[in-house]
Write the structure tokens for this entry.
Amino acid sequence: MGLESKITFILYIYSHEKSLTFVVSSAFMYIKSRSDS
């Protein structure tokens, strides 16, 4: 899953669910995975 796909997916979920907590946690997990590699 490319970076654009992840961003698009997160924005898609956010726009449909309005789940700020999910977006924040997803962004945190993404940043964490980027830091590990």
Notes: Helices lie at 3-17, 20-36. The chain has a mean pLDDT of 80. Residues 3-36 form one domain.
